[in-house]
Amino acid sequence: MPEKLDSTPVPDFAEQIRLSGRVFVVLGAGNGIGRQVSHALAQAGAKVGCVDRDPDLAKHVANEIGGHPLTGDITQRHDVARLFGEAREAIGAVSGLVDIVGMPHLGPLAALDDARWASQFDLVLNHAFLAMQIGGAAIAETGGGSMVFVASMAGLVSLPGQAAYGAAKAALIHLVATMGSELGPARVRVNAVAPGFVRTPRLNTMLNEPQWAALGKHIPLGAAASPSEIAGPILFLASDLASHVTGQTLLVDGGIARTVHLPKLW
């Protein structure tokens, strides 16, 4: 006998990517991945608070998308609290957060002094703690929503010259997993994407085209990501398409982190 026909209701999947009327705060919105994410959220219908420590960059992106510029130091508790308060007053109750901030201090661990070690954790981990604590409470007050953090492939695999950065990103990945559990009952989802090599404005000043091409030969998909290719997965995690996803880190690296380069053995 054939099985009973499935009559489960089918949702409007295309509509689930929509964020109509929801308020998102983007930390590090000024350029690169942050700018692309701000555009992605706005195109999906969200109202976006564009946070950058450079007021001109915050205003530029906000003007591009019809968002609201916000400026502050996201490593300071009082500033993070102020930013969420200003976002609520200017555009409405916050239901989402995307955190892009986190610059690596490159070089061998032995060459790092105490100040640069502490700075690396401020830039990557400590501000994320503040964002999760203050932002998570704000989002819970609205009845739930989503937070998406940008981790890194460096937090999952060992990369030369990125010991401190990798350690901080690994801690961020663990924090995301833990907060996914803690904030789940409040219907606040917490996830991350872990990019590999991305052609951000900062990295484009460090690498020339021949170097990018040489790097691309080690990436199974053939090239480093564009910032927009990281914004897409972030939009997925921020949307209702990922309504049953929390505490997870999505590796978005073109396949490079799971490859092993061996001498020819056959």
Written overview of the protein:
The protein has helices at 13-16, 32-43, 55-65, 77-91, 114-141, 163-183, 201-206, 209-216, 227-238; strands spanning 23-27, 47-51, 68-70, 94-99, 145-150, 188-195, 249-252. Strands 3-2-1-4-5-6-7 form a 7-stranded parallel sheet, sandwiched between helices. The longest helix has 28 residues, at 114-141. The protein has one domain (19-252): Rossmann fold. By secondary structure, it is α/β, with parallel strands linked by helices.
Which structural traits does this protein have?
7 strands, globular, 14% strand, single chain, alpha/beta, Rossmann fold, 9 helices, 266 residues, seven-stranded parallel beta sheet
- Global Rg: 19 Å
The profile of the biggest β sheet is: 7 strands, parallel
Class by SSE composition: alpha/beta
CATH architecture: 3-Layer(aba) Sandwich
| Sheet with most strands: strand arrangement | 3-2-1-4-5-6-7
* SSE order, one letter for each helix or strand: HEHEHEHEHEHEHHHE
CATH top level label: Alpha Beta
Within CATH, the superfamily carries the name NAD(P)-binding Rossmann-like Domain
Poorly predicted regions are: none
